[in-house]
Specification:
about 240 residues, Rossmann fold, globular
């Protein structure tokens, strides 16, 4: 069995990492202890220092919005992130069932940062990182190219719905790869209580909800049982 695990939102929690980055980059002047107390980086948008910065004019608002949008791709932010509780043990448990790789929408320029982060916190097979620089559906290609020809593949991702939507362009641009994958893949939608549903009459592959890493052992067996017998036409 081959596992393709997302990183941000599945293994790495942003916490206040983006807020620290924006504070330094834009010289906002927010005390570190205030940022550390923020439950998430989203809180920074309501800080008086940010409101004052954006009130200086459209140029400053655009600069803040652009920096906030692109912060996730910066090495400084990625280094500051902390593991989601249970994720290290969860991925270690996956290695008892098969091989593990990591597929992320981070850019290739921070691949070394990502590998170092995985090593620092004890994630297994930390060298097996694949950056999908252009399209989310490239995560499917990681499974296709790295798994054995008939090996079952389980994806674990918090962007389940966009990944499901990415099956259509995969079929259009890499039909042979899609045809190889359908029938032997499943998706565990991380961080939700109910899995997203397919808009098609038939499900191309099974999708199950994985609310947190503590549910892994139960859902993994169910996912494997459901793999197989799906039809490529359902995604066309």
């Amino acid at each position: 069995m081959f596992f393709v695990v997302d990183i941000d939102g599945v293994l790495a929690a942003s916490s206040s990492a983006i807020a620290f980055y924006l504070n330094r980059l834009l010289d906002l002047g927010i005390p570190d202890e205030v940022i550390e107390a923020m439950p998430s980086s989203a809180e920074i948008a309501q800080r008086p220092e940010v409101l004052a910065y954006c009130a200086r004019g459209e140029e400053f608002r655009d600069r803040f919005n652009a920096a906030a949008q692109n912060a996730q791709y910066e090495a400084e932010v990625q280094q500051r992130k902390l593991p989601i509780p249970g994720s290290v043990e969860g991925v270690q448990a996956l290695t008892r069932y098969g091989r593990v790789s990591y597929a992320t929408c981070r850019k290739s320029r921070t691949k070394d940062t990502t590998v170092d982060w995985l090593v620092r916190y004890g994630y297994p097979h930390s060298e097996a990182v694949y950056c999908c620089d252009n399209f989310l559906y490239e995560k499917y290609l990681v499974g296709y190219e790295q798994a054995g020809k008939d090996e079952q593949i389980v994806y674990i991702d918090d962007l389940a719905q966009p990944l499901m939507a990415g099956l259509r362009p995969l079929v259009a641009r890499h039909r042979s790869a899609a045809q190889s994958l359908i029938g032997r893949i499943a998706l565990l939608a991380y961080g939700v209580e109910e899995p997203p549903t397919w808009p098609t009459p038939r499900d191309p592959y099974p999708v199950l909800a994985l609310p947190d890493w503590s549910r892994l052992s139960t859902l993994l067996g169910v996912a494997v049982e459901k793999v197989g017998g799906r039809d490529l036409a359902a995604s066309a």
